[in-house]
Write a structure and sequence with these properties.
Elements (H helix, E strand, L loop, with lengths): L8 H16 L2 H5 L7 H13 L5 H7 L2 H4 L7 H15 L6 H16 L6 H12 L2 H8 L20 H16 L2
Helix pairs in contact: 1-3, 1-6, 1-7, 1-9, 3-6, 6-7, 7-8, 7-10
Length: 179
């Protein structure tokens, strides 16, 4: 039985494009620290190619951890979060819920990169919500609320706690209110 966090392949392909947009917004934070490490950029490009139907799900599932290892190339928390945003975007081929992980890590990276701007994280979430089309909103509304289903990335683990959990709850609340 599939997890309710999976989404259909068509929905995963669609939300992968939005997740790639979210991750790409903060990619420069990583690249400024690790300019020769192209794993996050490649993960974003692959998420887009998957979204366009150019790559197969099984191949992308096997590659989904590559970008996450790039986080070790960075030192600042913002750059680490940016690499993880790219990794989460890449993971959408496996499970649609990773799109919310990409958005959460991207917002976290934006907030960490601008400690003098208390609204930086909220501004990034607002941009992400504004970037969604109706099909993306509809697909993401199918996901269980963060922390409620243990069969995937939105379970009671890392994405459900701290800043990441707060961002995902904010996005899910906005989606619930935008029906």
């Amino acid at each position: 039985m599939e997890s309710p966090q999976s989404l259909s392949e068509a929905d995963r392909r669609h939300v992968a494009l939005w997740a790639a947009d979210c991750a790409e917004r903060v990619l420069g934070l990583f690249e400024s620290e690790a300019p020769t490490d192209d794993r996050p950029r490649d993960a974003i490009a692959r998420a887009r190619a998957f979204g366009r139907g150019e790559l197969e799900t099984a191949d992308e599932i096997r590659r989904r951890f590559v970008a996450g290892r790039a986080a070790k190339s960075a030192e600042s928390p913002a750059a680490v979060a940016a690499a993880r945003a790219a990794a989460q975007a890449s993971g959408v081929a496996h499970m649609g819920a990773h799109a919310l992980g990409a958005a959460a890590y991207a917002a976290k990276a934006a907030g960490l990169a601008a400690p003098d701007r208390p609204d930086a994280l909220d501004d990034e979430v607002a941009w992400q919500l504004g970037r969604m089309d109706e099909r993306t909103r509809s697909a993401l509304r199918q996901l269980p609320m963060v922390g409620e289903d243990s069969a995937g990335p939105l379970g009671p683990g890392l994405l459900a706690s701290g800043t990441l959990g707060s961002v995902i709850r904010d996005i899910q609340s906005a989606l619930a209110g935008a029906r």
